[in-house]
Amino acid sequence: MAEHKPGEMDITVQEKTFEGFMSMTTKGTIAIIIFLIFLALVAA
């Protein structure tokens, strides 16, 4: 088995996946907040 050397692993794919996850989470949160504001305005 190869010896592990910290800092040598290529993590570009993981970074792109995390960026996509954070982007979708942020957009989803904003969409939910806008939807809740819309519901509050219509129901009032």
Q: Which secondary structure elements does this structure contain, and how are they paired or packed?
A:
Blueprint: H1 12-43
Question: Care to give the gist of this entry?
Answer:
With 44 residues, this protein is mostly helical. It has one helix and no strands. The chain is 73% helix and 0% strand.
Features:
mainly alpha; 44 residues
Task: Please give a structural write-up.
This protein is an all-alpha fold. 73% of the residues lie in helices and 0% in strands. The protein has one helix at 12-43. The chain is rod-shaped and about 65 Å long. 0% of the residues are buried.
Shape: rod-shaped
Distance between the termini: 66 Å
Strand content is: under 5%
Rg, alpha carbons: 20 Å
Number of strands: 0
Indicate the structural class: mainly alpha
Helix share, percent = over 70%
Mean pLDDT over the residues = 93
Low-pLDDT residue intervals, each spanning 5 or more residues: none
Q: H/E order of the elements?
A: H
Number of helices: 1
Q: Main sheet, how many strands, which sense, barrel? A: none
